[in-house]
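// run 5 | inverse folding | seed 20
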């Protein structure tokens, strides 16, 4: 029997899409990180994040965006901001009834992007 991917454990595309929408609601209402999205087309950002997380969590790969380093270059993202973003993702998944062990797996995937995203320690 094949191990289920995080994508499968989260319930597939519809649940990932819903999670990303809820996630950005949290992020945009948090003044400690919302400024990073001040000049961002959030419809496009949401769609790209849905595709990225689908791919990163083991689902179909339809992500055509830049790599993490290029996509976040020059934004001055801090360690604290990265931690806050990951917390918002975890909180979103928890609110959606995702088990703690699956949230931990998702956080571990997010953690693999830290070195490419954080510019200010």
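// decoded
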């Amino acid at each position: 029997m094949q191990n289920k991917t995080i994508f499968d454990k989260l319930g597939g595309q519809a649940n990932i899409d819903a999670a990303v929408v809820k996630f950005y609601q949290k992020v945009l209402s948090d003044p400690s990180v919302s400024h990073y999205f001040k000049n961002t087309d959030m419809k496009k950002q949401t769609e790209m994040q849905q595709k990225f997380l689908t791919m990163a969590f083991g689902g179909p790969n339809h992500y055509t965006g830049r790599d993490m380093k290029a996509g976040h270059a020059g934004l001055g993202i801090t360690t604290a901001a990265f931690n806050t973003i990951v917390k918002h993702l975890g909180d979103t998944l928890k609110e959606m009834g995702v088990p703690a062990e699956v949230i931990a797996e998702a956080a571990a995937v997010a953690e693999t992007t830290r070195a490419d995203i954080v510019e200010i320690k």
